[in-house]
Design goal:
There is one protein chain. With 100 residues, this protein is mainly β. It has a single domain, classed as OB fold (Dihydrolipoamide Acetyltransferase, E2P). The protein contains no helices and eight strands. The chain has strands at residues 14-17, 28-32, 37-40, 43-49, 56-60, 75-80, 87-92, 95-99. It is globular, with a radius of gyration of 12 Å.
């Protein structure tokens, strides 16, 4: 059995939502590159790219200590902040979390 996304994130900073509450227009499907860099105990940096798009570096902040909710994930729907530098929403096959 696998952990849900929220089990790998700080519940004070992230919350689970259902599909009906998800703002579909803000989420895009991204390919997650294999190499994940641990920035600090609770932040991970990834390279992600949309189909036919250029890769960009983004951070996932407020993870549980030394946990990587996107480990071994190749494709996932993400919502990024306005600067496109930080992940603020994740939808992994209907398991949806957003930053509070």
């Amino acid at each position: 059995m696998f952990d849900s996304l929220i089990d790998n994130l700080n519940k004070d900073k992230w919350e689970e939502i259902d599909a009906a509450s998800k703002n579909q227009d803000k989420f895009l499907e991204y390919h997650v590159m294999r190499q994940h860099r641990q920035v600090d105990d609770t932040t991970i940096a990834f390279m992600v790219a949309v189909d036919e798009g250029d890769p960009k570096s983004v951070e996932l902040k407020d993870c549980q200590k030394k946990k990587d909710p996107l480990k071994e994930i190749g494709v996932v729907e993400l919502m990024l902040n306005a600067e496109e530098t930080e992940i603020i929403g994740i939808d992994l096959n209907g398991d949806i979390v957003i930053r509070k």
